[in-house]
Structures are given as structure tokens and as C-alpha cells.
Amino acid sequence: MSLPPDVRKHVALRLLESVDPPEGFDPASDSWLHSDAAAAYDALKADPTRGISADDIRAGFESKWAARR
Questions:
Q1: Which pick of 1, 10, 19, 28 has the fewest CB atoms within 10 Å?
Q2: What are phi and psi of 38, to 5 degrees?
Q3: pLDDT band per the 50, 70, 90 thresholds, residue 21
Q4: Are the CB atoms for 17 and 25 separated by under 8 Å?
Q5: What domain of life is recorded for the organism (predicted)?
Q6: Mean pLDDT of the residues in the chain
Q7: Does residue 10 surpass a pLDDT of 70?
Q8: For residue 25, what are the CA distances in angstroms to 21, 32, 43?
Q9: Rounded to an integer, what distance in angstroms lies between the CA atom of residue 40 and that of residue 8?
Q10: CA pair distance 8, 20, nearest whole angstrom
């Protein structure tokens, strides 16, 4: 975590690429990871105010779960 964000991103992508194909992602997931997920990460790093706290996400899930009952 002490590495700069761009280095962490590069390392994370390299680690994911190192997973053996049978254990790896399907092509659609791999494509999503390299396009949408990477773009979302870059956007969040550029503007951290776009982030949502874990507490808010958890509360949203709990609310949706409660509404299902």
C-alpha cells in the first residue's frame, strides 16, 4: 500500500494476468477488468470525492435485503 497508485494498479493487473487460464477469468471478465474497472479506478483516483464509503455500501445492501422480506 505504500507504493504509488499507478504502480499498485500495474502490479495488481500483472498478478491477475499471471493466473493460469483454467483458473483465470473468462474473456468477458478479462475485458471488463482491463477497460471498465481500470477506468473506474483511474476516475476515482483523479476525484476521490466520487468514492462511496464501505458503511454506505453496506447500508444500501442491508436496506435492499430488508425490502425483500
A1: 1
A2: -65, -40
A3: low
A4: no
A5: Bacteria
A6: 85
A7: yes
A8: 7, 10, 24
A9: 15
A10: 21
CA distance 56 to 36: 22
Please check the confidence at residue 26 and state whether its pLDDT lies above 90.
no
Helix axes 38-46, 5-17, angle to 10 degrees: 170
Rg, the chain, Cα only: 16
DSSP 25-52: --HHHHHHIIIIIHHHHHHHHH-GGG--
DSSP 47: -
Between CA 33 and CA 60, with CA 42 as vertex, the angle to 5 degrees is: 75
**Residue with the three cell numbers 499498485:** 8
1 has pLDDT over 80: no
Residue 44, amino acid: L
Q: Answer yes or no: is pLDDT of 56 > 90.
A: yes
